[in-house]
Amino acid sequence: MKCSSDEIDFTYFAASYMTLKGVIRILKLKYLFHNEELASMLLGYWKFDQLSLELFKYYRISSNAIYPFQDQDQTRLLRFAPRSGKFRENVMAELEFLRYLRSCGYSVPESIPARDSEELVIATTPWGEYYASVFKRVAGVQLSSTSLGNEIVYGYGQALGQLHRLSSEYVPGNHRRWSHLDVLHWIEDILVGFPNEKAAKTEARLLRDFFATIPATKANYGLIHYDFEYDNVFYDEATRSCHVIDFDDAMYHWYALDIANALDSLQDLIDPQAYADKKQLFMEGYAAEYPLADEHADIMPACRRFASLYGYARTLHSTAEQWLHEPEWMVHLRARLAESMRKKSGPFGIKIS
Description:
Blueprint: H1 11-14, H2 17-20, H3 36-43, E1 60-61, E2 65-71, E3 74-82, H4 88-103, E4 121-125, E5 128-136, E6 141-142, H5 150-168, H6 180-192, H7 198-211, E7 221-224, E8 233-236, E9 241-244, E10 251-254, H8 255-269, H9 272-289, H10 296-318, H11 328-344
Helix pairs in contact: 5-9, 6-7, 6-10, 7-10, 8-10, 10-11
């Protein structure tokens, strides 16, 4: 791809892909079991209040396990995942980007170094090797727990615009997240193991061809959050500001993908009759912080299809193993994931216009 002076040369990212191959980025179902002993063992790398371990009952597990605890009565969050399920370069790049955002005054979680001063712990345990880190809890409540009044929705858009403005100015230091091309490579590698997934393979090719025709410039392409949805954005009534968490899925992509995901998330929370007005407020908030790319609306459908294919491949990979006599919650989870995959695969193989 030949680039003009303001376009991004994708050879900038190419060197990373060979080290990314074969790495899993969503936890397999076997890692979704509550494991308080493992959490306690990993937490031993940090300082903590012993009595606060009762907070472990509020754990959650998806692409990471999150266990709350306290240190000197301050709430902290232990995050961990099997080393086989993450790529160290991506995790280190996430921590580096969070430090940059905080230095710019953007409200994201602050990581807490372990006793040995490392932000990321690589621990050998009886359950295998794990990556672990600890973060301070951000202020406020999830957007879904607010009134979603006009000021809040406008602020939601502002927060995304601010993020993209800062991303457009960001120069990685020692670590670099993967790009949309790396993700497509990963998807294609996963699909090799599923010969019947012909429509998904076609979809990957269509997306690769489509995005190759879209200029990627420093103005419209950069490090995106990817999951800028209501459960990852907290609103603090005291400061009337948004705080953004969970950059675990961040990648280099067109900013339009973040906008599409945020609007889809907003639509899930808003009465259909009020959505058009709320969408306008969100976009006004965004544009107040960062100019909208001319092509953002035109490429949103392809961005949504990229997200659907990525989610499909991740789910396919994470559910591939099956066992006899699975617990009831896992049986129900498989059913819900299968239905989600069915919906995501609807447009697969249809020409992208």
